[in-house]
């Protein structure tokens, strides 16, 4: 990982500037980027636009990162395009994420998408996606994550993330009021939640939320299947952005209702019970999961937990401990960054612990009929999900 835009600019130029062949929307923030991007892409699709959706990391398959009109691009097509990108990437010594970003731009241009919704990778100012020229930028929220790279205060991190905003162009955020001065400093035409636009949501239990928004572009009521108040807020941000783009209310309702975002408060059956998957990997994300389960009336349940060793493990565990009746510790087998299970035991004092070596062993430690939660890492979720679905996952080492 080497922050900077010089290499990705050179790589895109060598590919013929594919990013100029569609309009781009950048979605940044600490948490909720993926569900916000997925909702907005679904709305654009419902409005009749040919739409690309670029997200990261993938859960199970590399090609999940490249979606056109709701369909993951075929692996063969992705690999063929990657074969064309690779020699240039080696010439410019591009990083993994720079290669993936350029690949997404090439795939979307050749698929003739009209609009691509691009999830920012890390930060904003120096992220590879910021080589694009967005017509609209979204910032979901700002929390403490990747502090060694982005800064150790939310103000410093907000300044980095504000790099995706463009002076004189529209932008929206759900960030807290104390960060508005930092974001306003970018000079964008910023609509902030609770300032220019407002939202409220009513829980529909496991069916999602009924959401209402009031914006300068109009008011709207719609439904989203996203769980948790944070999910409703992400859907609200995407809907407000859609109205600002001038998309019709009917498309917003249809697209929001049809949003699918796997691995985030996703329930899957397992041996007569079910496992609730979530990729929460920082304190804010873990707190959002805890609040969502409290709203849903879920009591303490077995917790399958694994995490990257470079995360705020104490903060994540503190939010999850009250949810757990027992803890099954494991690690994502394909992630070199994953913490060893025995090093995580100290995070859950007083709770019954089971240590396992792989996600498959962790599932095997659940009693039949159990209702369980699995979280702490998107890589862990990405390895658990195909096991729950009876699919075959990728067998590649994963860093990003």
Automatic annotation (TrEMBL):
Keywords: ATP-binding, Ligase, Magnesium, Metal-binding, Nucleotide-binding
Coiled-coil segments: none
Gene Ontology cellular component terms for the protein in this record: cytoplasm
SUPFAM superfamilies xrefs: MurD-like peptide ligases, catalytic domain, MurD-like peptide ligases, peptide-binding domain
Mur ligase central domain sequence ranges: 27-166
Sample GO molecular function, one term: ATP binding
InterPro entries listed in its UniProt record: Folylpolyglutamate_synth (IPR001645), Folylpolyglutamate_synth_CS (IPR018109), Mur-like_cat_sf (IPR036565), Mur_ligase_C (IPR004101), Mur_ligase_C_dom_sf (IPR036615), Mur_ligase_cen (IPR013221)
Enzyme Commission numbers on file: 6.3.2.17
Recorded catalytic activity of this chain's protein: (6S)-5,6,7,8-tetrahydrofolyl-(gamma-L-Glu)(n) + L-glutamate + ATP = (6S)-5,6,7,8-tetrahydrofolyl-(gamma-L-Glu)(n+1) + ADP + phosphate + H(+)
Residue intervals of the Mur ligase C-terminal domain: 263-365
NCBIfam families per UniProt: folC (TIGR01499)
Xref: PANTHER family: DIHYDROFOLATE SYNTHETASE-RELATED, FOLYLPOLYGLUTAMATE SYNTHASE-RELATED
Family: Belongs to the folylpolyglutamate synthase family.
Protein name, per record: tetrahydrofolate synthase
Annotated organism of origin: Deinococcus gobiensis (strain DSM 21396 / JCM 16679 / CGMCC 1.7299 / I-0)
